[in-house]
């Protein structure tokens, strides 16, 4: 805050939660090249698990997922 007498910083509560984690992850990705969230192999595996769950739900049978 700036007044005719002085300049004082505005007190702000510390940031918390997922928004802060996401912001820090994006900044680390842009400045240091860190991976965002998961790599492509992990994403493909997660999608295959989701597809296996969908198939199992449709058929009522167990569906194997390859690693």
What features would you highlight for this structure?
single chain; mainly alpha; 0% strand; 67 residues
Structural write-up:
By secondary structure, the protein is an all-alpha fold. It has a domain at 36-67. The chain has 2 helices and no strands. The longest helix has 20 residues, at 40-59.
Task: Report the count of strand segments.
Answer: 0
Structural class: mainly alpha
Number of helices: 2
Mean pLDDT: 86
SSE succession: HH
Distance between the termini: 57 Å
Rg of Cα set: 23 Å
Instruction: Work out the strand percent.
Output: under 5%
Q: Which stretches are low in confidence, meaning pLDDT under 50 for 5 or more residues running? A: none
Overall helicity:
40-55%
Shape call: elongated
The description of the largest β-sheet is: none
Question: What topology emerges from the helices and strands here?
Answer:
Blueprint: H1 18-32, H2 40-59
Structure summarized in a few sentences:
It is built from two helices and no strands. It has 67 residues and is mostly helical.
């Amino acid at each position: 805050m700036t007044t005719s007498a002085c300049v004082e910083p505005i007190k702000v509560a510390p940031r918390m939660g997922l928004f802060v984690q996401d912001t820090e992850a994006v900044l680390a990705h842009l400045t240091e090249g860190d991976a965002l969230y998961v790599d492509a192999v992990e994403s493909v595996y997660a999608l295959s698990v989701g597809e296996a769950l969908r198939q199992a739900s449709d058929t009522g049978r167990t569906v194997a997922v390859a690693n």
